[in-house]
Amino acid sequence: MNASAAIHYDPRLIEETVFHAQRDRYVSVELEEARNRIYEVADADERETLFNDLNQTWFVRLGLGKTIEQALQEQTLIIDQVENCFIVRATQAKEESAELFVAQDANRKNLEHRTLRVLLRPESLFDAKALTLFLRHELFHIADMLDPAFGYEPTLPKAPGGPTYDTLIINRYRVLWDITISGRMLHRGWCAAAIRGRQLNDFVNAFPMLQDNVEELFSRFFDSERPQHSDLARFAFDPRQASGSLHRHAAPGTHCPLCKFPTHAFEAEPNNLGADILAAITEDFPNWVASLGLCTQCADLYRARQMSMAAAKLLPGWSSCLKAD
Ligand SMILES: [Zn+2]
Ligand SMILES: [Zn+2]
User: Fold this and answer.
1) Smallest Cα–Cα separation from 64: which of 3, 21, 1?
2) Per residue in 10-44, pLDDT tens?
3) What is the value of pTM for the model shown?
């Protein structure tokens, strides 16, 4: 990618960003004069073109795309492999994200065309520090997806427990991937050291079944310079097996019928889970009845089901590029 030539800005994003910049008085006076001259042009199409050109000129003149261009330049895998990058206007903060689209060439099967789409709100372009942090994180996801050493796969295998477990595993995978990104960002001096504690917290919350060596297991991801998709996926699917702590928790004959994990902690009164939760479980496990029991973790998962489904929909960017298949 020729960085300056292949970045395409959404004209609406440019227009609104320049509009926001008018809070500076000299901008507003000069723009007003230029706009008044354009209003005198009789032809509507010509006026439209002139307005777009005017906004474009001011967008460049005010350096409003500088942070975006700098963040893109930092990821050489993106510069080398992505042909076009579209910077598109987002209406809400939660829409802000970066997404990678890969299309096979119509004539040459082994040729792929890669397009990056970055969604941003106009006002985000004015906070260079926050935007840099956000873009560095998002573009790290994209660079990993392009890196053969990372070995990204766009889908995770289906979880045996049905859709609720798919969501659980995607969430765990997301937490692990974010941890590796935060670790690498800290290593490059791209974020403050406090991120380690926050990410450790996320790790503990995502993997409550891990009792021993939690910091050591966390460091396996946070301090890894070369993380791999397959390691993240394996750990997300079966944290106890992947962490080697399975034997310490195994108790023969006490497997949860839902997650199949050996467990000491069965939910005390499965009948009291409530009609909604019981219905959600039997939707995923038609043969299950409350008398079979379930572990407290599965019970917690179904208790939080509504919440986790809602949270999964909010995942920025990669929810559309990584889904359980
Ligand atoms: Zn992320
Ligand atoms: Zn269970």
Assistant:
1) 21
2) 999 999 999 988 877 778 888 889 999 999 999 99
3) 0.78
